[in-house]
Structures are given as structure tokens and as C-alpha cells.
Amino acid sequence: MKKNILISGFLALFVLLFSCSNSNETPETPAVKPPVAVDSFIRAADISFLPEIETSGAALYNSSNQAEDMITTLKNAGCNTVRIRLWKNPANGRSGMTEVKALSRRVKQAGMKVWLTVHYSDTWADPAVQTTPAEWKNLSFTDLKTAVANYTSTILTEINPDIIQIGNEINSGLLWPQGNLINQEVQSLSLLATASATIRAKAPNTKIMIHYAGVKASDTNWFFNKIKSVDYDYIGLSYYPIWHGKDLEVVKTAINTLGKTYNKKVIIAETAYPFTLGYNDWTNNIVGLDSQLVSGYPATPDGQKNFVLAIKTLVKESEYGLGFAYWGGEWISFKGNQAANGSTFENQAFYDFNNRALPVLQAFNK
Length: 366
Description:
Layout: H1 2-21, E1 42-46, H2 50-56, H3 70-77, E2 81-86, H4 97-109, E3 113-118, H5 141-158, E4 163-166, H6 185-202, E5 207-213, H7 217-226, E6 234-238, H8 241-244, H9 248-262, E7 265-270, H10 301-317, E8 321-327
Parallel strand pairs: 1-2, 1-8, 2-3, 3-4, 4-5, 5-6, 6-7, 7-8
Helix pairs in contact: 5-6, 7-9, 9-10
């Protein structure tokens, strides 16, 4: 009897399962999430003075006039990359390894990329001066290359940036006199190749940039043709109207021509524009005259914003354009409004003279 009841139970369960499997109900298909778009267009700001500004006690405010960490303000505005200069052995420690490593850590924690501008100098390096670090001044060329390789390797170990510049505005090479591109071309290229090879070997995911100041066709073509044997990823260009002309079409042409000729992505690595021609300390500003402005872009908060939007647009419209970086956005008059050794850039910063964020930050919106 028990056996018959057990068999009947199994038959009932089988019928039930069979009927469910042949139901007209269609199983619910799991929703497929669309792939997340990669935010590959670089919207960067150089904020190298920020640690010094913070040490001074100066407070920065967002557009709602609330005190806020500049890194947070930039992140909220849409900035996705922070550019930081690195000096070898600076006299006061500013922009040295310890400070830059700490700032880089904050940037990464905020979810932004780190772009290092390695000057290969103890101080400012630009088209007019490329001074070899004092520690390396008396080295033979062979030993200088070794020093460059070891230092570059240390940078990658300590900071591991997403982008690294081999030098800053190296129009005539770097590490003068031994690395001068004009009169020591072979050695200059060898130094660049040494740094590049070190990066490729130690940090293959880090992108390498070569940075030139200017957009004039004859000059840029001369330079990038000279360094075509060097292994790198990005062409970086500085563009300031006061030094490089007021025609944005020239900038557009430079991006397209260089990108196509050398098969590289191009970034406007430095640019800036004033929101006023006034000043907030007793230090002469770099830009202070109407004659230095680009037509259609007055020295007003909206004029500053629209200039940066114009740069962003022309870079985006080029198949070779990869992004832009604003230089000096943090450089307020943090030493006081009577400082004779203050900021030459406070009228081109991201903040007004009350340290409140300006509309220019809207240009970083994705």
C-alpha cells in the first residue's frame, strides 16, 4: 500500500514539472547593461602651486561660495586629469618628489588621472632655459644618460603617472648644454630615447608626451621632424595668444597637420586666458592690455570661459585632438595683495579676487 502511494506521488510530481516546463510563460530575460563609455578626452588643469597655496592658509571657494578643496571643485566641474610639474632638487622643496607624490596621491584618490611634467631640472625649464640639475652638472654624457634613466625609473616607482612628459617645452632640447637640440642633436635625441626606453620597460601603460611651446607651422614641423626617431605617444603644444598669436585657425591647423604627419594624438598641453585686466597684488601680470586679447573674447569671466570652450571645441573637432590643459588656474595672489613677488597670473586663474570659482570651470564639463 505504501509503495503504491509513493509511486502515485512521484507520478503527480512528474506531471506537475512537465506542465510547468511547457507553460506559455516566457522566462524573463536578464537586462543587459549598456557598456560604459570611456571618457578618453582629456580635460586637464595644471595645479602645481596648490600645495604652496594651501600652506599659506588661503581658502578657495566653489561657485556657491563654499570653501572647498580645489581638487574636489575640479572633479565636480568635469576635470578628469591633473597636470603637475616635477623638479629634481628644488631649493625650497616646492615641486619636488615629496610634494608631487603627495599631490598625485590626492588626485588619484579623487578618481582623476595624473599627468607629470618632468622638467629634468631643479627649477623652471622652458624654451629659454633648460638647466641641468646641479647634482648632474659635472657628469659625463654616459653618466648623464644613466642618471636620467635612474631618475625616470624612480619617478615611475614612486608616482606611476598616467601621462609623463619627457621635459617641459623642449623646443631646443633639454639638459643643456649636453642635451641641446641645436648644437648637440645626437646627444639630445639619445637622452630622449633613454627616458622613453625606461618608461616603456618599467611602465608600459604610461603614455609618453613630447612637449613643444608654440603652434607656428615652420617651427613645429622642424622640431617634430627632428625627434621622429623617439618613441612617444602624444604631441603636447603650448598655446598662449600673447606669445603664439591670436588666430585660432593656426592652432587648428597645427593639430591636424602634426597629427597626420607624425601619426600622433595632439593635446594643447598649456593655455590660459584672463577674466580681467586688473590685478590683485603688486606683481606685474603677464597679460594686462587689450591689445593682447583675441578678438571676440574680452577679458571678462564669460570671455575667459568662451575662450577655453573654443580651444576645447577645435581640439575635439580634429580626429587627432585628444584634449587640453589649462595652466595657472590655481595661481591666485596667495602671498597677499601687496606682494611684489606674488602671482603674475591671478587675472587668468580659475578664481576671482575673492577666491571664488569662476564660470571658466564650466568648460571642463564632459
